[in-house]
Amino acid sequence: MHPVLEKVTQQIIDRSRDNRSAYLARIDAAIASGPQRTQLPCANLAHGFAVCSAIEKDELSNSVKPNVGIISSYNDMLSAHEPFQHYPALIKQAVREAGGVAQFAGGVPAMCDGVTQGMPGMELSLFSRDVIAMSTAIGLSHNMFDAALYLGVCDKIVPGLLIGALSFGHLPAVFVPAGPMTTGISNKEKSRARQKFAEGKIGEKELLESESKSYHSPGTCTFYGTANSNQMMVEIMGLHLPGASFVNPYTPMRDELTKAAARQVLKFTAHGDDYRPIAHIINEKAIVNAIVGLLSTGGSTNHTIHLIAIARAAGIIINWDDFDNLSKAIPLLTKIYPNGPADVNQFQAAGGMSLLIKELLEHGLLHGDVLSVGDQRGMAQYSQVPTLENGQLHWVEGPTRSLDPDIIASVEHPFAAGGGLHVMHGNLGRGVSKISAVAEKHQVVTAPAMVFDDQLDVVAAFKRGEMEKDLIVVLRFQGPKANGMPELHKLTPILGVLQDRGFHVALITDGRMSGASGKVPSAIHMWPECIDGGPLAKVRDGDIIALNTQTGEVNVQVDPAEFEARVAEPNHATGHHFGMGRELFGAMRAHASTAETGATNLFFVD
């Protein structure tokens, strides 16, 4: 085991001891009470299986067979979730044939940041994660289930499902993905069209044609944003079946993996002799494995928020220093857009998760001694790949070397020595920066600040030609308490254009960037956030800011006494708390924790 990995893991175990013990005590109490269904009075149970067949009623009333709850993010507007339409029927049949019963326990909302990007609805995005967690809890609250299957893919959906699942940590769980859509136009071509539109070189008709060729069918978007980072993370934590993450929808392999997940979760219920509740799978080592996966693949910065919230739901306390310390030891092993031109289908073809996990395990960069939902209890099986032989699903050894070294590298010859994710610190607060997709020549910027309180004002300034210079955009009042911490991906084409024109540009904000962003250097998730009087609220137009994403330093070059004496500016952006349902989320904004503690209000955080 790599000494840094070992050290960080032990620090997390020591830091989490009291919280983790309290969490496990609650889970142990639920386990000790036995199958929850046996506690239901007759009238309650009758409500719970009223639509079941006579045979299923008999089996459930006598607790003869395990009952699997299905929680799904299905809707047929969003490509990533549309394939889930057919999963419940497949699952119910597979469970029935394997000797159990399955019921659709509940649906959770699934919004798409791609649709809401730059729009008012985006200000509901972050808190939709907590709504999903609560919706999951409502679905499982009927005490009818011995295990659960979780159907989810995208940005906030998987973290929300995981948080909800961990609140029912006594239940075995398998997560069931939908897979990515097939490859359309290249991500580079799509990005080029966006920048041309920002420059006025093409119109909306040409832009829509480009976007429609990229997002063209059922399945997850093919770039390596938060959605596909989710799939990587869930598999490397051992909650997907090995090799399940990046199989395309509506294929025989996808259907067989879904049915296999249904059969697999039955093996782990308290009715059998291999009980594996999710609370025992998601421990400190599994969380560290998730961070390692994120760093080694150059994954989404959104998980510097989501993974912290997930960990805390399991009584585990992690912080940005853990990401930063591991980043110094974990090499960058993949180039998937935005870190390179390839998409996740090409990553899969180059060896995918099995090769990535094999590389990390062989070099002591991943905990192998963890519980998983594979047939084997540890991570060794996750270097295997699924295959169909005469329609039957089997796992065989995956590739031992990269099938495309331009997409997946080896630990001996990585794309970069470190994971490229840094804690940012200085007199402007504390945040994070991802540099795995930023060219080295752009990683250090010193320039005057242009201060904004609304991303639409940045767009307007660009269109007026006011940003044709070296600058650092300071976008304030974008934190969770201010306006729900929307992603600011709308700014990526603009700042990319300026950078391509030869200007030195960067972004500093207490908001988020998209999981697909990365070309332009930034310091994001800065806290204390501006609405709490954070130092970004004291920055003025023209202040010189030094941003060094290599060393993690972000400072305004103003006399310390003068800067301390400044009064934090009020929020000049108005109208962000009403309309498009935003008025319903006032309590969540008001009680949100900091970005480094998960930007959540679902449970107490330090």
Features:
606 residues, alpha/beta, Glucose Oxidase, domain 1, eight-stranded mixed β-sheet, four-stranded parallel β-sheet, 22 helices, 14 strands
Structure description:
The chain is an alpha/beta fold. It has two domains: 3-182 and 217-397, no CATH class; 421-574, IlvD/EDD C-terminal domain-like (Glucose Oxidase, domain 1). It is 37% helix and 13% strand. The protein contains 22 helices and 14 strands. The chain has helices spanning 3-32, 42-48, 54-61, 87-97, 113-116, 125-140, 157-167, 187-198, 204-214, 226-236, 252-267, 278-281, 284-297, 303-313, 320-327, 344-349, 352-362, 455-463, 480-483, 492-500, 560-565, 586-590, and strands spanning 67-72, 101-107, 147-151, 173-176, 384-389, 392-397, 421-426, 429-434, 444-452, 471-475, 505-509, 522-527, 544-548, 553-556. It has an eight-stranded mixed β-sheet. The chain has a four-stranded parallel β-sheet with strand order 2-1-3-4, with helices on both faces. The protein has a two-stranded antiparallel sheet with strand order 5-6. Helix 7 (157-167) links the parallel strand 3 (147-151) and strand 4 (173-176). Helix 7 (157-167) packs parallel to helix 14 (303-313). The longest helix has 30 residues, at 3-32. The chain is globular, with a radius of gyration of 24 Å.
